[in-house]
Amino acid sequence: MTDVYKALADETRRLLLDELMQRDEQTLFELCTKLAMNHDLTPTRQAVSQHLGVLESAGLVRVERRGRYKLHTINTAPLAEIAERWPLRKAQQ
Amino acid sequence: MTDVYKALADETRRLLLDELMQRDEQTLFELCTKLAMNHDLTPTRQAVSQHLGVLESAGLVRVERRGRYKLHTINTAPLAEIAERWPLRKAQQ
DNA sequence: TTGACATGCAAGTGTTCACTTGCCTATTGT
DNA sequence: ACAATAGGCAAGTGAACACTTGCATGTCAA
Fold first, then answer.
1. A82 with B86: Cβ contact below 8 A
2. Residue A41, CA: closest nucleotide via C1'?
3. Interchain contact, A17 vs B86, CB within 8 Å
4. What is the tens place of the pLDDT at every residue in B4-16?
5. d(C-alpha B18, C-alpha A91), whole Å
6. How far in angstroms lies nucleotide D28's C1' from the CA of residue A78?
7. Segment among A28-42, B42-56, B79-93 with least mean pLDDT
8. Which of A57, A83, B72, B75 could form a disulfide with A2 if both were Cys (CB 3.0 to 4.6 A apart)?
9. Mind listing the domains of chain B with CATH numbers?
10. Residues 48-77 of B with CB under 8 A from A
11. What is the pLDDT of residues A27-72, one digit of tens each?
């Protein structure tokens, strides 16, 4: 169980969430490709897999196995905790 | 310049933000005391000072020097970026 | 003015973390 | 069946990070 805050601490993981916002149900390989194409990042497949594991452990990504494919879907619900914990105050605007 | 996400990654820093939500313009020593009282944490003064430095660098804490006191105030505005970057989708609710 | 108080700076240490490497398992198509 | 594809496991490495220690600076009150 990773907490949401630690999951967001890494830029690569944030970019993975960005890509999943664009389209749900993407495989590990698709996400690796998009990191390279859209962000000039070329971590190994294992590194990306570990990042997705952290995101899943934090509840930010849901996984569904379909044959030999593992499809990843974003779940932004846990992020609500952040806005609720430190709400915006009018005086600061 | 620390990014907001890294600033939130540490539990002690999150608790400091919690304490600053309760009351603005607190000194380093006040915050040290509250970490001990409310959360059973006893890091050194320097450790807490460094954490406050990270929060300030991320724009989450504003500082005002008043004589020998340094008063810390929370600024939750940077957190809005998170909710905007990965908005909640109806289908997930 | 001098001692107490509030904070700052900087080097050193141990742990956490991202990443790689190497090998293994499972599924699919021909 | 078997080669190709998609993914998994686990140990090892280097860097980033939280934290401490020791000393220095600046402010205030008696």
1. no
2. C19
3. yes
4. 999 999 999 999 9
5. 17
6. 48
7. B79-93
8. A57
9. 4-87 (1.10.10.10)
10. 74-77
11. 999 999 999 999 999 999 999 999 999 999 999 999 999 999 999 9
